[in-house]
Design a protein that fits this description.
With 491 residues, this protein is α+β, with helices and mostly antiparallel strands. It folds into three domains: 110 residues, Beta-Lactamase; 84 residues, Orthogonal Bundle (Helix Hairpins); 151 residues, 2-Layer Sandwich (Heat Shock Protein 90). Strands 2-1-5-4-3 form a five-stranded antiparallel sheet. The chain has a five-stranded mixed sheet with strand order 7-9-10-12-11. It has a two-stranded antiparallel ribbon with strand order 6-8. Helix 1 runs antiparallel to helix 4 and helix 9 runs antiparallel to helix 10.
Amino acid sequence: MNATEPRRRWRPRSVRARAALAAASATAVVLVGTGWWVHRDVYRESTRIAEEQAETQLWTLADQLNEGVVPVHRSAVPYEVVATGRRTAVAHGGGMHDFGPGTRHVLPAPTEAKESGYLTIRPVRIPGRRDGNPGDGFDPANGTYMVMSTDISADELGGDKAAALGVAADARLRVYVVVLPDTAETITKTTDRLLLPAGLVTLVLIAAVAYSAVRIALRPVEAIRVLTASVTASDPRERVTVPATGHEITALATTINTTLQRLDNAAARQRRFVADAAHELRSPLTTPLASLEVALAYPERTDWPAAATTAARQTRRLQALAEDLLLLARLDTRTPAAGPETVDLAALASRLAEQYPLTERPLTLTCDGTAPAHVHGNPDEFERLLRNLIDNAVRHAAHRIQITVRNQDAWVVLTVHDDGPGVPTEDAEHVFERFVRLDDARSRDHGGTGLGLAIARDLAHRHRGTLTLAPRTLGACFQLRLPRVPAPAEK
């Protein structure tokens, strides 16, 4: 690897591995938190048990001393009984032997008087053994330990009991019991040793379960991927199997099937469009070609002005068809309109009605719209939309064409109504399809390309409007609805 390239961090690539890693990480955090809580709780509970054990031992020793009985040496809890006026311990056990020469008892004799039966607990430093002998198991190493103590007055015991204990009649005895920290530490360490492997096993088990669960859950996704990979642009007819479980993968499969259906429909429309375009281009190419071939074969008998006129007419038709095809291709790319402006649709319709040439046959073209009707959009595209509607009406009208523009709440409604043969109700939507041929009465033999209404509807949708065929008993009435906007002076 190049030294200048940054080192890439390792990350699992598959969803299964990432899910397993995420589950393991979350489990590790939970286990660490739980282990810390258990460790602390076990230590606190063990310490409490050790204190209760030491306190029980303390009162047991006090009861024995009050009876004049010297406690035995064997004890699970280290203890020592000392008295004033005596260098050696009255009694000891649990490993509290003489720790060295010159020190007859480990813990100090009472110097101040305390109430008998009063329990105190405080830290006391206990020296380590010089001989290294652990005794009965308690082996302090110059450490400080929590020690419980209580005092007993010898004069309350009586002379006989004090003599039995080997102390003077006016002596004061103090009973010490050491709270062993080893018990809590041992229990806590044992718990930790049990929790660690259990946590590791749990961690591995959860990661494996997460990996397997995600792998099983992704099997339908893999099947969808394999089937989708076989779909091609020319043949998008494959469909994925929709699981009956009703979870997110079902929604994914349904969405993919819907997308594939849209692609299939688009491919079918494209194939039909290409076939129709090829068919429409054949006629304006074949007619002038045949006329020119006949003229070239018999030049002396050819009416050259008529042949040139026919060729020019077919060429204009071919040019119009090519321009319509290019415009449809641009509209299909969904390119946003450049520089949207505020257009007065009423003024535009009135101007087109006045300027439209009606030379072929007598027709009356009127426009009814006195109030301004402002919309947002491209003026050239609006003009092309209205021209297409007027062209369609002129080709099929018998005597009259009526253009109406009015404001209706938040919409501007424009209608183009002709008194021609009309369109059957079942063909109300088909007339907006590309290269659709209806009956002879509304065919394209009058010079149309068959794309005008399709272009007009696409332009209406491009400007967030609609173009529909309104039902009429006489002729055809095309209704354009566009969002109304305030006039520039009203803003």
